């Protein structure tokens, strides 16, 4: 496994103190104990990667390599405990390659003074970097493997009937507990006495999220005299109130729903591949929740993006320009970064269709849930984006149309505005 914490979901509070506070000596001591390394054995600790609320360290010995993830207590105990349980659940019940957990402490009552997970080091390269070197046919095989993984998680035996995060109930048994999501612990939300579930159904889950949005705006209104901030907060509060009022038109408060595990941040940074494009690991299982089928039955984030029907041609793009292009000239093969961006958009769209076709073969019922869940997923997107200045107008227009009995895709509207990929927290998280 590798760190994927430097993505848009990163939380920034207390990072400086966190970076200075983690001691290699304590990491070595804990690692020796759990790896059963004697005092004479080599044990070297190195910083591997750093994110907003996690640091990842390599543990190198003459017998192998491991990783330790050390975390800030952004959601004390729950985040680490649910991440470990989720990884163990996936390893036990599916063929998805996930690191083995060798030891963990979900509290900070230890020598390190932080929560930590010691895990297997997984081979492979990050798909994001390897994407350009993999042929389209091998990408198709990769997507078929992702479809197989989704089908396995869809099986009845792997489902529950509540929304939240999995925890271990006993040896080899699991249950769904309170939700671990950035929606619920971002900023000062983690310190609030708020309903974290587990939620009986979508109505409860979305109501809790919209109530948090209302609390955010009330807090702004109580602490600012700036006219612009007041106007924005009032507009966001009104929109959240309208969504709460519209909620019963889409969701029933007494509904009993089946839920399944959905890795809703499964993009190219969280997949490792070998030189042939075979998946060697699926990473970053923190904040991965059990969601209702309408939410969980959708293509992985890797295949999200705008629609592009025509393949871009190299001859239509200019040469690499160090002033504006990302990455280096060699990686870009001397071409403008725009070519590679457009090519990935085209390939993603083609592969998205393949994924859906494969799901229809593997689990026809999954595709049924995907198709009939579009309106519900749009409402969830509206909930996510109702407090953002960038997207509020789009959400308002969508809600206006639906209140009049007209329907169109909010997702498509947000893509057209080129802001949908800002679903950070904005972000989803796992939202």
UniProtKB/TrEMBL annotation:
Q: Which organism is it from?
A: Recurvomyces mirabilis
| UniProt signal peptide | none
Where do the Aminoglycoside phosphotransferase domain residues begin and end? 57-290
- What InterPro entries does UniProt report for this protein, alphabetically? AGP_Transferase, Aminoglycoside_PTrfase, Kinase-like_dom_sf
**Descriptive protein name:** Aminoglycoside phosphotransferase domain-containing protein
User: Pfam families, from UniProt?
Assistant: APH
